[in-house]
Amino acid sequence: MAASGGHGKVRWIQRYTAGERTNHWIVAITFLLLAASGLALFHPSMFWMSAVLGGGPWVRILHPFVGVLMFVCFALLALRMWRHNLMQKRDVQWLKQINDVLTNREDRLPEVGKYNAGQKLLFYVLILCMLGLLASGIVIWRQYFSFYFPIGVIRAASVLHAVCGFGIICAIIVHIYAALWVKGSIGAMVRGKVTWGWAWKHHRAWFRDVEGGRSSRDTYTNR
User: Fold this and answer.
1) Average model confidence (pLDDT) for the chain?
2) d(CA 144, CA 186)
3) Which of 83, 94, 111, 161 meets the CB 3.0–4.6 Å disulfide criterion with 117?
4) Would you state the pLDDT for residue 1?
5) At what angle do helices 89-96 and 117-139 cross, to 10 degrees?
6) Mean of the pLDDT values across residues 4-33?
7) 220 - beta bridge partners?
8) How far apart are CA 137 and CA 191, in angstroms?
9) Contact partners, residue 222, CB within 8 Å, separation at least 6
10) Do the beta carbons of residue 21 and residue 31 sit within 8 Å?
């Protein structure tokens, strides 16, 4: 499959809508604010990072509200992407051939949908971490909720919050590394579109679905 169409023009496929990209970057920005302020609250040696939200008192006030904003935006994004992240038989085979993935032998792998099995597992890890952060965050939110819970529950929620926070930071590092590893991934989330060649190389089953009209929201452009 050639990446270029007729008359020397590159042919494109829409991968993300403007709304999805806006939502994604809101989640990204709020994550950075929460990770820095959360680490500042976690250990005195990292307290200097509290500057991202205006210092100690403001961090304690704003961190929970920014967390709720991130959760709502992430939930909307996850709902829009849910159907493309359902595990299929070809994803199990993709995972069995992880050595071919790591050595860039994509020609040996089963055809990939809009997301590969690694991206789908990361999607589920993020959901679990977000649910854990929300539930534990409500319990330890002293201004509004923590006085409803016994001290033992608050202590357990604090541990869960730290574990989920560590988990989501690790997951996001993997997400960023994968985006840098597969050239064109970041451009897709900035411009919203990818070339035919990129789609054919990395997400061939998705390309076939779009070509066959089975993915109604993904449309062709040629400009």
Assistant:
1) 91
2) 39
3) 94
4) 39
5) 100
6) 87
7) 13
8) 34
9) 5, 9, 11, 12
10) no
CA distances to 3, 24, 110 from 17, in Å: 21, 11, 27
**24 a catalytic residue:** no
| Nearest CA-CA partner of 80 in 17, 7, 162 | 17
Question: 23 CB contacts (<8 Å, ≥6 apart)?
Answer: 73, 76, 77, 80
Q: Taking the model in full, what pTM does it have?
A: 0.88
User: Coil, strand or helix: which one is 88?
Assistant: coil
- Residue 10: phi and psi, rounded to 5, are -75, 135
Whether the CB-CB separation of 15 and 194 falls below 8 Å is answered with: yes
Query: What's the first-to-final CA gap in the chain, in angstroms?
Result: 18
Mean pLDDT, residues 123-137 taken together: 97
How buried is residue 107: exposed, middle or buried, by Cβ count under 10 Å (0-12/13-18/19+)?
Answer: exposed
Q: Read off the DSSP letter of residue 97.
A: T
| pLDDT value of residue 6 | 46
Annotated catalytic residue within 7, 24, 161, 175: 175
